[in-house]
Amino acid sequence: MKRNLCVLCLFFLILFSVIYAADDWTQKSPTVTGGTLSGRSGGLMTYIGGDQTIMFGGYISNSTDETWVYKLSENTWTKKSPSPKPSARTGHGLAYISGDYVLLFGGWDGGYDGETWIYDLSENTWTEKTPTVTGGTLSARYYHSIAYIGDDQVLLFGGIISGNNKVQDTWIYDLSEDTWTIKSPSSKPSARQQHSIAYIGDDQVLLFGGSDASGKDDETWVYDLSADNWTLDLNDSQPSAREGSPLSETSMDGSSYLVLFGGFDGSDRLDDTWTFGGGDYSLPVTLSSFTVQFIDNAPILCWVTQSETSNAGWNIYRGESEEALSNEETYLLNLSLGLIPGAGTTSEPTEYSFEDFFPVYAGNTYFYWLESVDYSGETEIYGPISLSIPEYEWPNPNSPEIPKPYGLHQNYPNPFNPSTEISFMLNENCIGNLSIYNLKGQKIKFLFKNRPITKDELVITPWDGKDEFGKNISSGIYLYELKTMKKIYLKKMLLIK
Fold it and tell me: What CATH number belongs to 8-279?
């Protein structure tokens, strides 16, 4: 039976896993559109969503300010012509940050640069930010490294600042708050330049190599954002000391390998390929419970995982017989209308809840299936579980007090245009994040982050239908997620223009 598994948003990862599994490099012969793609060095490239990467800048005969996007499924390089854009430069930092956005910081454009820019692929725009800087002075620099570190945040470490001085500072940029914040880890790598950084999941990044005061370096360090700590990672084998090695993720959840190629060891340009991680981070998706209850005239589905690996998300299906999933002639409803975001890779229990907002009728029995989808497109089905809708009963005037409405509530109004309100009440004190996603699982906006929530407090949060950049979003179905340390709540809403 054909089902929409959002394979388009996973296509790049599927293709890459096939290429990598062959243990081979494949030279491509791409079509080039929009301009001439000249040979260059120092043109940084990073993932930008779907099956695409973006490249900016570098050195041809001089520094360039070109923006190029490569699409794997079409094997095509396309020159973009955004205006405005960063100045021509090399030695800058470029990293995926969320959705189809990337962040650029610093570089050498004839002098030390300290600008922060965001590129939006869907709009083909570079936007210079004027972020708040807290905790210290963020010096202009080049030959630093930056990497995605979860949610809509990027980590920056080291580089060269004015006076040709190497530094060892650690910074976090938060897109939703447009803020650079200096961190104060108790231990950290030595001051260095041209090191390599990549995301390994669970709010952690890995740093390798670079050049410090003693010369080329072969150390491996891991930074944990939640602990604000750099840890030296000791390995039985590792690449030789070097600088300028390209290092990249092969997934954005940390469950797959990092790939490192080449670099300069002080005498030779290297051509060796190394991988890090992969199986070290692999954990099975373990579902410990899957239930459905009829609450406040709606079916509420709840499920708990004990651990997840590469879990892109979930689909929920509903039918009116136990054979609905296997019988193509039996009507089956996909309630999720797009992938419900999963936890990626985690060894901690994760709780989910989902309200079936499609009509149900008194006296009928409905069957539900839960489908997990990983980043390679592999799926696993759980269920069915069943729910019988009770016949309507008139309220008993002598019934006890109605319990408090704990949980994430349906937004109001819904459908909405141009604004709506999201409310919730929890039965414990905690810290929470409230976010908006599109049906591809791309984060549209943080409504709040790390907000203290008081038990029994009714929290009402307005949303004006705009993304992080203040742009009006298009009509369609969107997801809103309340996430605490113990539980994830998820519901849908509809914007109509």
Answer: 2.120.10.80
